[in-house]
Amino acid sequence: MQLINNNANVIGTSLQGYISTSFDNLVKAFGKPIYDCDDSYDKVQVEWALQFEDEDGDSVVATIYNWKDYDDGSACKQAFKYNWHIGGNSYDAVQAVYAMMETAEAAEYYGA
């Protein structure tokens, strides 16, 4: 699995699963979020819009976002572990996010 776009068109995606990790770990794996808003009335304050390519060359779209914290994004950014939502068109989105997180954690562990 390879990340090919961190500003993907994610229109039409929906909740597929969750990942429990920190904001900092997501930034290490995927870069800064594409959406970072401090409006406490929005349902989402932080979101990544990602596109992956699998081993067969197929595209997988995924979003990672907080949901209905109704704060300025501080709850999800400051927590040691936060329960992030993963959106996509299928469960492949969850598997892609997990695979990239494992790769990023292994690279950090081995000093890459």
What's the structural blueprint in terms of helices and strands?
Blueprint: E1 2-5, E2 14-21, H1 23-30, E3 35-36, E4 46-53, E5 59-65, H2 74-78, E6 82-88, H3 92-109
Antiparallel strand pairs: 1-4, 2-6, 3-4, 4-5, 5-6
Helix content: 25-40%
In the CATH classification, which architecture applies?
2-Layer Sandwich
Mean pLDDT: 89
CATH class: Alpha Beta
The outline comes out as globular
What is the SS-derived class?
A: alpha+beta
Strand content: 25-35%
Distance between the termini: 18 Å
Number of domains: 1
Spans where pLDDT lies below 50 across 5 or more residues: none
Largest sheet: 6 strands, antiparallel
| Radius of gyration of CA atoms, rounded to a whole number | 13 Å
SSE string, helix = H, strand = E? EEHEEEHEH
In the CATH hierarchy, the third-tier topology is known as Alpha-Beta Plaits
Number of strands: 6
Note the total helix count: 3
Task: Characterise this structure.
The chain has 112 residues and is an alpha+beta fold. The chain has a single domain (2-109), classed as 2-Layer Sandwich (Alpha-Beta Plaits), CATH 3.30.70. Helices cover 28% and strands 32% of the residues. The protein has helices at 23-30, 74-78, 92-109, and strands at 2-5, 14-21, 35-36, 46-53, 59-65, 82-88. Strands 1, 2, 3, 4, 5 and 6 form a 6-stranded antiparallel beta sheet that branches. Strand 4 (46-53) and strand 5 (59-65) form a beta hairpin. The radius of gyration is 13 Å and the shape is globular. The two termini are 18 Å apart.
